[in-house]
Design goal:
Four copies of one chain form a homotetramer. Chain A has about 300 residues and is α+β, with helices and mostly antiparallel strands. Chain A is about 45% helix and about 10% strand. Chain A has 14 helices and eight strands. In chain A, a hairpin with a 3-residue loop joins β7 and β8 (about 275-280). In chain A, α6 (about 115-130) packs across α10 (about 185-195). The longest helix of chain A is centred in the middle third of the chain and has 14 residues, at about 115-130. The interface of A and C includes residues 100, 105, 106, 172 and 177 of A. Chains A, B, C, D: Homotetramer.
Chain lengths: ~300, ~300, ~300, ~300
């Protein structure tokens, strides 16, 4: 592994090299706040397990992390060690779009994994069974690991998700019909929509995720998960973190990662670092076009990969 | 990583600890030669990138490697660098049984990945377009990497596959109907059935696969694939190598691996070693029950994992 | 056609012959009011286009007509001649269970036909776009055609449907997500659940349905549909009226019919008569076991069939 | 029913009225002989149960009857009263394209009905179990009911089907893998392709099919099926005869019918007549555009319909 001193330059080179590609892909258009993001935005930040931080581009601008939050809510649910979590949600890639109800029908309301929408709804339901205020608790967790006390839910995004989230609402009721949702679907959806509406920058996201590269603990020694649990989360990110393009993503990038339709991606090199990229243009699978390219370059230029 | 001197003992401990589980799972029963394998068989072999070999249990007894051969035939196809390979076969986990035709119909004859049967048939077709004798060439490749000139196809297995392989035959014709099979389906099936009928021991299989842990080259310096290609194959093993249980396998074991219904599994720790296990009892997904447990123990006892 | 004088005896013979089969099949068990119906109940009523009525068994006992009401709500929607009705709901047999969401996903929220739950929800939504009180209007229609001013919704059934109808709720939101539901899903569901909760006897149901045998008009000359529309409804009953067993039902009975999970079936011989049967034990497809047998006997003993 | 004297004029009026539509739809293009049919062809013939024949347009020109032959092969299989026929093939509309393998996988090799390709292959297999020469026997049957000793298989069509019929071949092997094909798939396919390659005119087809309108017997008194069996075939035509558009066809036309991709349709009004139409342009479901329009006009102008 090259000296850390080179990292800032490495990220800058990648950001510069990909400058001509800015604007590639399509913005998520299902809610207004995502539609009006600057399509040319592009940022990148890397946080080592020692806590050193490197960044380039629009790395301090906040964006809607959307499904990247599913890693954080899964962490929260696993912290409380619920014995029935893995009976209520599977651990397999879905082979379908992230918002498909087909698989739920065929597999009697058990979502394939915690990183598709249905799975994250079950994870949220599990959290709500344990905690009186699932929104505040996750916010506290995120502020803690990111070291940024002013991280907030984007209320406008949460409200827009609530108003248009009919497919998620259908999923929640469908799982309720199979007995795989304990709480009131509207309460689960409210918490879920807020989690998706977390607004964070690349710098904050890289910091927030570095515990996954460090056996479950932050560089400051705050432990979120056990080493064994951390491996499990990383394995799920690898096999289920990039919507219906996990194979392609592993083939090209070779790092456990979770993407969101806001254009953010959090990737992990276990034992080394976390890296967050953001560019709002998405490919057909819903992953950031430039984000994926940036991670691919990071891997190919350095040989860093789990493979 | 612990000293190599401990490896023999490590494997022996795993084999001993799992002795009470021998016989767990169900033998593949679709052809007679697989039905009459001793269900108590259990072997394990590990080959480091330096070429050092460690083993325990029935590690020198040959068995039918079945779908583990798909890694070798993919290697052969990638060696010849066919530009259209990845247009004709995908790189995503299937989310379906290994012999499903449903996905082929929905995706117009393009198999999801090279490690399900349909994908391996396309890979075989690609090989046949380049090589006059696909069977002999693969046999030569295997003998070379395994360092065992007497490795053979089990003709009885190949014949039994031929006689009962109606589902594979249906797949081949179905892909032909979509224009995704160039050759005569019967010729493709003949080569494919022979590849699946390779008879190898854990020792031979670990040796044969160590190039995947070593950037594409054997410890003796014979290079099968480039480092970039090697990463790609490993990523495909991780996301697609364990039938419809890849997520579960990654969650528990955390190593790229390819399993076969003969009960063999080849797993890779990049940069370190390859490991082959064999026990013929299968779980519902078609993966060796004891083989998976042994790899899980190897990972949990040592912390070795890509995550 | 035999003399009408024989009809009472014909129905009585069928009811007597099938007496040993009373209790066959399984009661619908998803709501309490359906679970406590007497499983031995069995009634039959036939109404000719001249308005003559014949009956046998428990023909005057009211039961929950459930999905048989879908014929009446479709009639109501067609009366108002909405131009977009057939763009929002298809006219094909579903090949799936009556409460499947799979087909909705594959066909972008357009239900296959108006007699599966999703289709009836769209029909109800269409009615609600036109009428301020969809429940009262349908009740008036039913009372009119049945000639029974005291027909009511069973409020207990409606409430139980409301409390347990999560799958229907999921469907409604899912169609809303595709833009194929205009109204508030809860309002649509409320009207739908009430329609399903209509409580009628065989005598009332036979009378209520005879307009379908008479070119759209009751024997008293009240016209519900045009002759062309009447044929259309009958054709839909034949191809879509018996859940996922329409082929089998046509093969055995040979009459357009609509069944409900309360155990009722309304069948039509165009130009001749309507016939209603009721017995609460259901087969796997959700059709009344004795009801189907009774109609099969009616057809085989008399040769009455559209084929 | 109007006097027979009007029939010639009625057919002629329909043919004239639809003249501007000649050429609508797309010709089947999967084999060369079907591609070179004159797209403007349009013929119509009606045969009453008394044996009177009426026709208009290109009613004496022969065409490839394709799937209309499935009615004849089913008749042949039912004549021999095989007890296991309905255990090996279902009686439900498929809800899928005529050549889908998906349903076969989900329902373990049992085709939904005898009028989709897979079902007709099973019917052909059943015939081959009973008869040494399935091709000659069906040809004899057809010549007999059509009263035309010179009806032949179009050998060029049969050969082209054989050469391009990979999807049917995949289906045959797939059903073989489920144990639902007894014979050699190639022999079954050979007989099946020949049955589809029957070359007949509208006049011959109307004559050949009139036994279905007459309780199973030709006007000359040759009985092919019992009255009960005849009803069964008619019900299957209604629920399964028009590919994936049976509901639409019943809604618009209201007659049991079987169509073929050669552009022919045979329809039945039980107790009255058979009618054959032919025009090679197909709609998306594979039914003749003008043929369907002609039958719709026949029904709407006269009120003739089973509904």
């Amino acid at each position: 592994m090259r000296a850390h001193a080179d990292f800032d330059q490495l990220l800058q080179t990648i950001v510069d090299d990909l400058a001509p590609e800015r604007g590639a892909g399509e913005l998520a258009d299902y809610i207004e706040p995502l539609r009006r993001v600057d399509p040319l935005s592009f940022g990148m930040a890397l946080c080592t397990v020692e806590g050193e931080l490197y960044c380039a581009g629009d790395a301090t601008q906040r964006f809607s992390i959307q499904s990247v939050s599913k890693v954080l809510s899964l962490t929260l649910a696993m912290q409380h060690g619920r014995h029935d979590l893995w009976r209520r949600v599977g651990r397999e890639p879905s082979g379908n779009r992230f918002n498909s109800l087909v698989q739920l029908e065929h597999e009697r309301g058990i979502p394939r994994n915690p990183f598709i929408n249905a799975g994250a709804l079950v994870v949220t339901d599990v959290i709500l069974e344990m905690l009186s205020d699932a929104k505040a608790t996750l916010l506290d967790l995120v502020r803690g690991v990111a070291g940024a006390a002013d991280i907030e839910f984007d209320r406008e995004v949460a409200r827009a998700e609530h108003e248009t989230g009919h497919t998620n609402r259908a999923m929640a009721w469908f799982m309720k019909s199979f007995g795989n949702l304990q709480g009131d679907p509207e309460a689960v959806l409210d918490a879920y929509f807020h989690h998706c509406a977390l607004s964070m920058s690349c710098v904050e996201l890289a910091r927030a995720g570095v515990y996954l590269a460090n056996g479950g603990c932050t560089p400051e020694g705050m432990c979120m998960l056990s080493p064994a649990q951390t491996k499990q989360v990383n394995s799920l990110m690898l096999t289920c973190g990039a919507y219906d393009a996990v194979g392609e993503f592993a083939f090209r990038v070779g790092l456990p990662a979770k993407s969101g339709v806001g254009g953010g991606i959090l990737a992990i090199l276990p034992g080394r670092f976390s890296v967050a990229v953001w560019s709002p243009g998405l490919d057909r699978a819903g992953n950031s076009v430039l984000g994926t390219m940036a991670l691919e370059q990071l891997s190919s230029r350095t040989g860093w990969s789990i493979f």
